[in-house]
Amino acid sequence: MIHDVFIVDDDAAMRDALSLLLENNGMNTEVFADGSTFLQACEYQNPGCVLLDMAMPGMNGHEVLTTMNERGLQIPVIFLSGYGDISMAVRAMQLGAIDFLEKPISGAKLIKRLQRALMNDEGRREMQLHIQASRQSYSRLSPREREVMVLVVSGLLNKEIAHKLQLSPRTVEVHRIHVMHKMGVSNIAELVSVAGLCKI
Amino acid sequence: MIHDVFIVDDDAAMRDALSLLLENNGMNTEVFADGSTFLQACEYQNPGCVLLDMAMPGMNGHEVLTTMNERGLQIPVIFLSGYGDISMAVRAMQLGAIDFLEKPISGAKLIKRLQRALMNDEGRREMQLHIQASRQSYSRLSPREREVMVLVVSGLLNKEIAHKLQLSPRTVEVHRIHVMHKMGVSNIAELVSVAGLCKI
DNA sequence: CAAGATATTGGTACTGATACTAAGTAGAGA
DNA sequence: TCTCTACTTAGTATCAGTACCAATATCTTG
């Protein structure tokens, strides 16, 4: 399995050392000197992980992670901080980081904690790809179809949906069929499941 | 809203001080001198929170939280530690603690962080009660009804279920009706939803 | 303007689910 | 042994959903 590790650190020597270490351990690495560059360029294809420095000019690590959360970028984040305290670490974890390490750190320890994060991501990725596909299908529905879908998923009969939307039952039936086709499911059970997965 | 705060600390003076502070702020408190006593006696009725000391004779804080996780005890945990370092805090957060505070701490700050945890728990509790009710309904199904239910939820037709279980379609129909009644739902959409909630 | 997507409504026929009633068998427990 | 529960099967009638068919109006886009 190929893993992509994104290294975000303002210290060039640190970037090079980390990149070298991880490439020698069979990982792909991409390096970024600051948070906003990373946020623009991050192409999250393979299961991976972010090694994020806390203190950087421009956006600091917390801000980068907050932005990632806002954008729904769910790749796991490990903080690497030169001078941190407990409250900084706790805040990082509360924002959703999966680990927080102090520099300097031994190569062996870093690799070990990184492996844990990558394992974590592998399982999550599969589910995520599935969810993403469902979201995409949902986005291809017309507005009316979406309205019908949420009512179908909530358990209403076509008749009730028709009344609620001021439509003829026929129309609802047609929309319903379209929804099933576009969402790629063949029965209500599956439709409810995928709707639940992508939290519609 | 009444809140229960469980204080687990081996230092009697600390227990008293915390209890006094929180009671004066309108919370119910229960104090425990060690982890195992707490684990035995914890009656989690109202939305609440645990203030957990890290260094204690017998079980330490990490062990208490680990045991809580194993038992599915989902009340939020705030660690209060006298001498901790980043790695200890990070491990605590990875185990699922929602906060990690250092002693000594000001009353105002403690109350503030505690309020956050309690708010968090209020929302979670409602969902939790709902899930628990569904689990109970599910436990009241007969073995055959459970088999039928999982197949219904997975989207199979009665005919297919009958074939899979070597039954007559009639029998499946009856089980299906019983499942709907016992689970307290009136259509497949609701059934799939509650099944998804309690991860059946 | 023409083409295509969207929203709307209708018909017919088939399949599946539900509600009702009814009943036989088998095993556990009083 | 009797009872209770679970499991099994059956008939009938009704209602809901699906798969075909087809048509009209609106609105955006090329």
Label this structure with key terms.
9 helices, DNA-binding, elongated, 200 residues, Arc Repressor Mutant, subunit A, alpha/beta, homodimer, Rossmann fold, 58% helix
Describe the 3D structure:
The structure is a homodimer of 200-residue chains. Chain A is α/β, with parallel strands linked by helices and 200 residues long. Chain A folds into 2 domains: 4-132, Rossmann fold (3-Layer(aba) Sandwich), CATH 3.40.50; 140-197, Arc Repressor Mutant, subunit A, CATH 1.10.10.10. Helices cover 58% and strands 12% of the residues of chain A. The first copy, chain A, contains 9 helices and 5 strands, in the order βαβαβαβαβααααα. Chain A has helices at residues 12-24, 35-41, 61-71, 86-94, 107-139, 143-153, 158-165, 169-183, 188-197, and strands at residues 4-8, 28-32, 48-53, 77-81, 99-102. In chain A, strands 2-1-3-4-5 form a 5-stranded parallel β-sheet, sandwiched between helices. In chain A, α7 (158-165) crosses α8. The first copy, chain A, is elongated. The mean pLDDT of chain A is 91. Chain A binds chain B through residues 84-87, 89-90, 93-94, 98-100, 102, 152-155, 157, 185-190, 192-193, 196, and chain B through 84-87, 89-90, 93-94, 98-100, 102, 152-155, 157, 185-190, 192-193, 196. The first copy, chain A, binds a DNA duplex (30 and 30 nucleotides) through α6 and α8.
